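Hey, I'm writing a tutorial for new members on how sequence and structure tokens pair up, and I'd like a real worked example in the thread rather than a made-up one. If someone can provide the structure for the chain below, I'll link this post from the tutorial.
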Amino acid sequence: MAVNVETLEKLERKITLTLPVTVIQSEVDSRLKRLARTVKMDGFRPGKVPMTVVAQRYGYSVHYEVMNDKVGEAFAAAANEAKLRVAGQPRITEKEGAPEGEMAFDAIFEVFPEVKIADLSTAEVEKLSAEVTDEAIDRTIDILRKQRRTFAQRAQDAAAQDSDRVTVDFEGKIDGEPFEGGKAEAFQFLVGEGQMLKEFEDAVRGMKSGESKTFPLAFPADYHGKDVAGKQADFMVTVKKIEAAHMPDVNEALARSLGIADATVDGLRADIKKNLEREVKFRLLARNKNAVMDALVAKAELDLPKSSVQAEVDRMIEGARADLKQRGIKDADKAPIPDDVFRPQAERRVRLGLVVAELVRANELQAKPEQIKAHVEELAASYEKPADVTRWYYSDNRRLAEVEAIVIENNVTDFVLSKAKITEKAIAFDDLMGQQG
């Protein structure tokens, strides 16, 4: 039987469904009979409750279930018959004026859009590249040396300077009153490394062991301690101990302590370079992928299903509430988060998802098993026991599905880059890694 599909606007459609009353009643009777065999009621033995009593008690809820099931089945069959790709859940309402012996329902729903992608050879994409420099390797070695530094007490008359570890007692007061978190004894920090507010570091720098000093400190307006944010305090600090940092030399002993197979300075540098190149590759891929996706969205024409956008908004709100809960925010699950906060991002995600899906379908860019395997092995390569990490990925279908999604995105990125007008741009290693020069 041909299904009459009415177009309401853009992606919205309407189908009228009819169901014979006898079909519904027959299913209700069947379910009530099954229920009567197991239902327990006071004054009756199990399985001996009269049908009239069962119908009186459970008739409404069973009828409601049957209506939901049968209307749902009828909608699925009609949508399938009309070859419709339904987006989201239909809104179903009973329709007045059905012929005798029948019930009629209007199902209003959205369909997925037709996605038109313009000629990708006219798309323009800036493709980034970056090199791992000797300076980057040197800085990484310095970080590794810092992590392994040792400290030795300075002479009594030595002044505290940058990179020294100082042990201090301090007490702060606001308007002459102590405040929570404003006092500590035998507190250690490294001078010049931003562990303390600048005024605090400036006060301690140049002090000698045994000296005390009082100084003013203005807490920033955005300070994490809300009770003191934006307020002026007076601190008294006493230096108890000053220790000078000693960085290990760059030699074979350092290479051995880092577990480098070729325990030489060259071996250490080669190992660091390999790891940095892997990180650079992933970061470049992420940046170039974003540029490709922007270009792809700009070349696509489609209407967005409101239901898909709303489902994405709901998912994002749920994620935000879960994040608040994890941070210990009280009643996070009831936090009022307006839809508008996430709507632009949700629209972009849905648009991108539909465009990518169309490009994958039209150009057979699905992830091949060997691509998934290669990507998992690449992810595992930076770990101490790669085989264990590979097994971890393959032991869970959800993890593999995440890898598959990344591989598909990579396939799409390569496909678009092979068609588009590419402008190559080399960027500094520091800019890519988000470091200050």
